[in-house]
Amino acid sequence: MNKKRIILSSFCVILLLALVGGTMAWFYVNEEVSVTYGNSIFCEAGDSLEIALVENGVANRWSSAIDYSAGEFTAVDISGNGEQLYRPSEIDENQQPVNLIPAVSSMEDSNHYDYIEMEVAFRSVSKMNVYLSSESFVAPVNPDDTTSNIYGSFSRDYIASAMRVAVIDDTGSLKMLWAPNSDYQLIQNGDGTYAFKTGSAATPESAYYFYGEDEDGNIVRKEISADTYASKKFVIDSTGAERGYTGNSPVLVSLNPEGSETHAQKTVKIRIWFEGTDREAHQALAGGNVNVKLKFVGISKLTDDNRQTAINAITFDQDSSTFTGLAEGMVFSTDGLQWTPYTSASPNLPVLDSGASIYIKYPETETNYETDYIKFTKD
Fold first, then answer.
1. How many CB atoms lie within 10 A of CB 270?
2. What's the pLDDT at 12?
């Protein structure tokens, strides 16, 4: 049985993970891989924001940080969008999963599960939105340890690249899916050996994938969509957040005490797993050690209804491929990921090809929350 406890004074938000032996990725799923999530999973809140672990439906012992002991479990890499997660029961001759079945969370079976899941609650006496802070990270414990890897002279701890963290709200909907390290790259050489690149030497992931249901209910390999990028539900690398400016992180919960309430309170589930479609989910990295830090920040800002009204009023003429209603301060994107400031003095919007889309919004600033985006697609 997993032990769960609260630390009232901890400000160190670290998850230590050790994969001991075995293999990762879409093969050898019948071999057991023992995973130890160190001593604890810590989650920290800041300022007037408080956090608590929810057990049996009750938020216990509110504090600035919680400490969750995950214990050990048999691990295979799994896949999903955070809302639904699947594990393979078989692997074909091409090392691809077949017969994907629902993965089991630690909340469903504390002794035999496929991914970590914990329920946490946030509360505040003030109105605020809660985000994942830029102080959060997933990183190798010892990137210089190359002594025990038969596959090449690189640390197995770079398995950190294959980890995913999801936040699910109290309705079961995805608020955020985080892939932390696009600048790690495992390379297979022609002679069967492997090499590893990091930072500017690595080629960033060209796309991100998961297994999920198609329109007919079949579980198929899918690509993260530009709409998901644009909505900020999918976050790559650091959240890029500064105090008062939350960068890439979406709003996880909104707190707003009303009437006689002394606190506003919301609950989310945090899910942590190894994503089998990631290019670093590979046996060459099994046996690594990973540090994960999760820190949350509550920020109170202004919501500018006039800016959202202005975004909603933008129009696109299909015949002339022109826009009306654009203004300085807006930003646009063609992939939902990279955003460019709009300049009225020298209009820099691209001419859309047939089938191409563009997203337009006001970005978040130190004083104002971002607006929802508006999307136009060329016929």
1. 19
2. 31
Spatial contact of 121 and 130, defined as CB atoms under 8 Å apart: no
Residue 227 makes CB contacts below 8 A (sequence gap 6+) with 336, 375
Please say if the pLDDT value at position 158 is more than 70: yes
How far from the centroid of its chain's Cα atoms is residue 171's Cα? 18
Alpha carbons 328 and 326: distance in angstroms, whole number: 7
Q: Which of 193, 93, 197 is CA-nearest to residue 143?
A: 197
Q: What's the confidence (pLDDT) of residue 22? A: 30
Give the 3-state secondary structure percentages of the chain, helix then strand then coil, rounded to 5.
5, 40, 50
- Our CA angle for 309, 314, 320, nearest 5°, is 175
Which band of pLDDT confidence, cut at 50, 70 and 90, is reported for residue 11? Answer: very low
Phi-psi region of 47 (alpha: psi -120 to 50; beta: other; left: phi over 0): left
**Do the bridges between strand 331-333 and strand 50-55 make them parallel or antiparallel, or are there none, so unpaired?**
unpaired
Give the type of residue at 236: I
The bridge status of strand 234-236 relative to strand 174-179 is parallel
Rounded CA-CA distance 378/322 in Å is 11
Instruction: Enter the tokens of residue 271.
Output: 């899910």
Instruction: Assign 169 to helix, strand or coil.
Output: coil
Cβ 91 vs Cβ 99: under 8 Å = no
Q: Where are the beta strands (DSSP E) in 206-285?
A: 209-213, 219-223, 234-236, 253-255, 264-274
Q: How far apart are CA 80 and CA 87, in angstroms?
A: 9
Question: Using CA atoms, how far apart are residues 123 and 68, in angstroms rounded to an integer?
Answer: 18
pLDDT per residue over 229-262, tens digit each?
Answer: 999 999 998 888 877 788 889 999 999 988 777 8
Place of tokens 């093969």: 27
φ, ψ dihedrals at 134, nearest 5°: -70, -15
Total residue count of the chain as it appears in this document = 379
Q: Strand 289-299 and strand 128-132: pairing?
A: antiparallel
Strand partners, 230: none
